[in-house]
Write a structure and sequence with these properties.
By secondary structure, this protein is of the alpha+beta class. It is built from 23 helices and 59 strands.
Length: about 1150
């Protein structure tokens, strides 16, 4: 048994290591079955007369084969099975193996009966041995034991005493051989079957789902820190790059690009901004190629490394990279340009481009291809496995196959063969809009403007399949690559179609309104059932297919505004989030810290309604928002945001906490009479406490509701038009109702006032509790909007005469009038958190900053596009702006937060145009590196600062308190006075039993302790003795040229009198004493710190006078110090006498 057990165990370990090293399991399994079959055959001839060596070797041979089959078959099965069936397959294999091998090991070991297979195998083996043994022992005479196999196993010791001992042993051995006789043919059959086993790779890449599904859309290209743009109108996913389990998405942001991690849709980095919009993007390994204007730029890790320029000077529309060649089409479609971008070709590169840094190379231009007249090239495709050949699609519907090396057209595919009929191939519908390579060689997918899709074999010049998609032109095609023959197509109307290529192009699923706009790109993730789409609605979506025939399920997405936002407001007090409203009828919560925290406020189950009604998603959304108000005081309890919409009498509440529409929708017309006009809501306001919401209408009324219950509480009416306003409007009759339209609402911090502005130019102050109109302030012109800074009580009113008027709500008077040019209308204003500044934007594209205390224009700059809305961060660090031509929100840093800025008056003539904030971090890094220089340049000169010394002939004091130097002069007296009369004594510990003295009277024997007069040095004393004082280290430096005494005396000024005393006592060497005397001499001659020099000189001579007199080498320095002291004293006395005489003369004269 020992050779069998040890041999199989060792061979099992050895076979596992061989499979791990070679990666192949078939040769080991073949050899194992051969060795095991030979072993079973040899074990048939074993008998009771076999030698011990034979009994050990034959089972060892079988064990060497069986040991290889312990682990290797399991590895082979796991390599062939998919991941989802791994557990089931492993369990079934172990179950069947126990059933097959237990019978063969019945006579050699006791096997556990814990599995069903082991039980069946042992039972069969026991039945074979028992039946065979009984037949062989039936003819023996004189047998006194039970002839069954079980009895013989239990009576082995009794067999030797039986007369027929030899016959019994022979019969038992031959019965066991019957089992090997049955196993050998079965092993031969297994050997034949194992020859045809397939080989599978043991290297498996497990791709897991990157993140959980998000229930709400997330912002696409979110607001960047410091400055940046969120999304653009041209957010097209050009390509996905899969590297193992990681997926990278490349998107276009107008003039720049962004790279995303596909698992969690997180932004990795943003490329630099170019001068012209990007027309095409592609990826080559880790490199990114972008076509912008007349250039094609290569980026590595966001850094530009290669720039190819069109020598013709025309813009480039499309490009493709294969091998060492770069191909690009001109915008007019008449030429194809070729560059050599190989590494060897870089040696022949021309000089660096003048538009880029010095390290950017420009590859060599190889050739140009001129197309025939009537062929307008639009799309390029390099067919797989085609050497030096490219497929060119035209706007006329034709295809051409070109050889780039020889610059010849190999074959032309006419539109009559690509389309279904020649009659349908007109100039409009026959335009090829999509061209993509399929997983099959020579087969491509072609999409047309008419909605037709052709699967075409370019080698045989034959159309294999044709499908038609309704709903606009084909914008993109993509073939599934995970083993299922499915083609995905997208249209210009936002639809997504899936076609089964195995069923002659049968339509599997049609997702209507997959995007709220045209879909610009579609791409299957290689080897995964995940489809990624990108549309002109500034949204990227990932669709998951749970089964080959299941409908696509939205897995995750990242989106943003697909129309420029026109209203932005900061939400909360930390300045990390914005509420933005856009013409796309959406309200978004945008985080300026992390894009993943941004989302769109849900308006209900609009997707289901759109699918049921066959309408677009945008048509079911609410009208665009015209006014936003919020209060975060009770945001965790109930709705905290109010919105007013275009030409609607409705006021809607929202909850940011739940990311959706709130519980209440108030109809402004509910309380109005039937005959009277209900009007529309123009502005909204939420009280500072968050309990009340107020809305003003075009009819001159404002209603208040409770934010928690939704009940209407109060109504504020502005009343009739004041006489002063009527005279200003030159109206002879009663003003129209529209002229009393409420344009702005606000409440103070304590809920005492409700302030409303009207279109006819009045500011109305209402009592919050009684709704009584207390006061009406008439303005010189109409008021379009207003904003209140609650903490300061300042109200900024935007008037029609291009002026911002600041009103104090306490005094109800106009305190400032800030003029914003002469013509352009003001669009929006914002207060700084400290209410010191007002920032305004107007139609002349100028953003102005006014200083309220002085009423001056302190900053103004012109932007390339008009800013429609501005918002100042509550933390005073950023200014957020929204512009008419961008779907993003730009952040401008407040320089006053990190640098000293001089607030000078800026005139309209000094206004300059600035570029928009960049989306790449390098620009901000360069700006931060220049902050030191900016700080030095912008630091104002303090005209009130006093120089260290007014005049060299005047005496300057230290400006320190007189008590400082008086304390130093009398320090010994002060210390002696503060010294205690006697040192504190430690209480003695009395013993529990006091000893007594002999005698009649009871007297205690108290032992007096002897005082230890030896002084113990502490660790601090030892350390101080070895270390040098600061004064000792500074004095040697004073003798060098260029070193002044300012540092030394500045150090003395920072010390206390006791510390100065310690420093002076530390001067123990003659060099230190000499150096200090020289320092006093120089300071006296400089006429500075006169009282400090006198004090230090007095204390120094009292401390070290004896030492100075004992050493003759120091007497000369003392004599020189004495001369300087007498000279300076006489000069000061003369100055004092002159001053006293002058003062006496003036006093007597007056």
């Amino acid at each position: 048994m020992l050779p069998y057990s040890l041999g199989s165990a060792m061979q099992s370990a050895l076979s596992g290591m061989l499979v791990a090293r070679t990666g192949s399991y078939r040769p080991i399994m073949w050899g194992a079955w051969v060795v095991m079959t030979i072993g079973w055959g040899l074990m048939i001839i074993l008998d009771s007369t076999s030698t011990v060596a034979t009994q050990e070797i034959y089972p060892l041979i079988a064990a060497l084969g069986i040991g290889c089959l312990f682990q290797v078959p399991l590895i082979a099965i796991q390599a062939a099975m998919p991941l989802k069936d791994m557990a089931t397959t492993t369990g079934a294999f172990i179950f069947l193996r126990c059933a097959a091998t237990s019978a063969s090991r019945r006579s050699w070991t006791h096997i556990s009966r814990s599995t069903l297979g082991g039980t069946i195998g042992i039972t069969i083996g026991d039945a074979i041995i028992s039946s065979t043994l009984q037949q062989r022992l039936r003819g023996l005479t004189g047998l006194t034991i039970d002839p069954s196999a079980a009895s013989i196993n239990n009576s082995i010791k009794q067999i030797a005493s039986i007369p027929a001992c030899v016959e019994v042993m022979h019969a038992y051995a031959r019965s066991v051989s019957t089992v090997w006789l049955v196993n050998t043919p079965l092993s031969v059959l297994g050997l034949i079957l194992i020859v045809s086993i397939r080989a599978y790779s043991l290297h498996r890449t497990v791709i897991r789902e990157g993140a959980e599904k998000t229930n709400d859309p997330e912002k696409g290209e979110g607001v960047k820190k410091a400055s940046g743009e969120a999304g653009t109108k041209d957010n097209a996913m050009e390509r996905t790059l899969s590297k193992g389990p990681r997926i990278h998405l490349l998107t276009c942001l107008g003039k720049s690009w962004a790279l995303w991690e596909g698992g969690k849709m997180t932004l990795l980095f943003v490329g630099p901004e170019e001068l012209d919009p990007i027309s095409c993007l592609t990826m080559e390994g880790d490199a990114i190629w972008a076509a912008s204007g007349t250039h094609v730029i290569k980026y590595l890790r966001g850094k530009e490394v290669v720039r190819a320029t069109n020598p013709l000077g025309t813009s480039l529309a499309a490009m493709v990279i294969f091998g060492s060649l770069l191909l690009a089409l001109t915008e007019d479609g008449g030429r194809m340009l070729v560059w050599d971008v190989s590494r060897d070709g870089e040696d022949s590169c021309s000089k660096p481009s003048p538009h880029t840094p010095d390290f950017t190379l420009e590859p060599s231009f190889s050739s140009t291809v001129q197309f025939d007249i009537g062929f307008t090239a639009a799309i390029l495709l390099h067919p797989a496995t085609y050497l030096n050949k490219v497929l060119v699609a035209s706007s006329e519907g034709d295809l051409q196959l070109w050889n780039i090396r020889t610059q010849t057209c190999i074959h032309k595919f006419s539109s009559s063969r690509l389309l279904i009929t020649q009659g349908s191939a007109n100039m409009t519908s026959s335009t090829i809009t999509a061209l993509v390579q399929s997983p099959a060689i020579d087969v491509v997918g072609i999409g047309f403007r008419s909605g037709e899709v052709s699967v075409y074999d370019i080698r045989a010049d034959e159309r294999l399949m044709r499908v038609f998609m309704e709903g606009g032109a084909i914008r993109g095609l993509s073939f599934r690559s995970d083993g299922h023959q499915v083609l995905a197509s997208v249209s210009s109307h936002g639809h997504l179609a899936l076609w089964d290529l195995n069923s002659s192009g049968r339509l599997l699923h049609l997702v209507r309104g997959a995007h709220d706009g045209a879909i610009s790109a579609v791409q299957w993730v290689p080897g995964q059932p995940v489809l990624i789409t990108s549309g002109e609605d500034n949204c990227i979506k990932q669709w998951l297919f749970d089964s080959p025939t299941a409908a696509p399920r939205l897995l995750k997405f990242r989106s943003g505004h697909h129309a420029p936002p026109h209203l932005i407001r900061y939400y909360g007090e930390d300045g990390k989030q914005l509420l933005t409203a856009s013409a796309d009828r959406s309200l978004r919560y945008t985080s300026v810290v992390r894009d993943s925290r941004s989302f769109e406020m849900s308006q209900g189950s609009l997707i289901k309604k759109a699918a049921a009604l066959s309408k677009s998603l945008s048509s079911l959304k609410f009208p665009s928002i015209t006014s936003i108000a919020h209060s975060t005081m009770r945001s965790k309890d109930w709705d905290d945001v109010l919105t007013a919409h275009t030409d609607e009498p409705l006021v809607r509440s929202w909850t940011v906490l739940n990311k959706r529409l709130g519980k209440h929708t108030w109809n402004y017309a509910d309380g109005a009479k039937r005959k009277s006009s209900s009007g529309s809501v123009k502005c909204v306001c939420v009280s500072a406490c968050g309990n009340f919401g107020i809305a003003g209408s075009s009819t001159g009324e404002a209603h208040m509701w409770n934010m928690q219950s939704g009940l209407k509480r109060k109504t504020f009416k502005v009343g009739s038009c004041p006489q002063a306003v009527t005279e200003r409007l030159n109206a002879t009759s009663k003003p129209k109702a529209s002229e009393r339209c409420i344009t702005g609402l606000a409440t103070d911090a304590l809920n005492r006032l409700v302030v409303a502005s009207t279109l006819d130019g009045t500011i109305n102050f209402f009592d919050f509790h009684t709704t009584r109109l207390d006061y009406t302030l008439v303005l010189p012109s109409s008021a379009h909007s207003m904003i209140l800074h609650r903490n300061s009580g300042l109200l900024a009113v935007v008037c029609d005469d291009v002026t911002v008027r600041v009103v104090d709500i306490e005094t109800r008077r106009i305190v400032r009038e800030l003029s914003c040019g002469s013509q352009a209308r003001i669009l929006d204003v914002a207060f700084s958190p400290d209410s010191r500044w007002i920032v305004s934007t107007s139609l002349d594209s100028i953003i102005r900053t006014f200083d309220i205390p002085t009423g001056r224009l302190i900053d103004a700059f012109r932007t390339p596009s008009i800013a429609t809305s501005v918002a100042f961060s509550p933390t005073n660090d950023f200014l957020a702006t929204a512009h008419v031509d961008s779907v993003g929100v730009f952040l401008w840093a407040n320089r006053a937060q990190f640098a000293e800025v001089t607030l000078r008056t800026v005139s309209e003539k000094d206004i300059t145009e600035v570029s928009m904030p960049s989306m790449q971090g390098d620009v901000e890094d360069d700006a931060l590196e220049a902050l030191i220089e900016l700080t030095i340049e912008d630091k104002p000169v303090d005209v009130f600062s006093t120089p260290p010394q007014l005049d060299g002939d005047l005496v300057t004091l230290t400006l320190l308190p007189r008590s400082r130097w008086q304390t130093l002069l009398n320090l010994e007296v002060i210390q002696q006075r503060n010294q205690p009369t006697e040192p504190p004594k430690k209480p003695e510990q009395a013993p529990f039993f006091l000893p007594t003295l002999p005698g009649v009277e009871h007297r205690f024997a108290i032992q007096e302790k002897k005082e230890d007069k030896t002084e113990k040095k502490t660790r601090l004393d030892k350390t101080m003795a070895k270390s040098k004082s600061v004064l000792q280290t500074k004095l040697p430096k004073l003798g060098k040229k260029g070193n002044s005494d300012d540092e030394l005396f500045g150090y003395f000024k920072s010390l206390s009198p006791a510390a100065i005393d310690i420093e002076l006592r530390s001067l123990v060497t003659l060099d230190h004493l000499r150096q200090f005397i020289h320092a006093l001499q120089r300071r006296l001659q400089s006429h500075r710190d006169f009282e400090a020099v006198q004090t230090l000189q007095n204390v120094f001579l009292r401390m070290h006078g004896d030492i100075l007199l004992d050493h003759e080498e120091l007497l000369s320095e003392l004599e020189e110090l004495s001369e300087i002291q007498e000279k300076e004293s006489e000069r000061i006395l003369e100055l004092l006498a002159s001053s006293l005489g002058t003062l006496g003369f003036v006093r007597d004269t007056i």
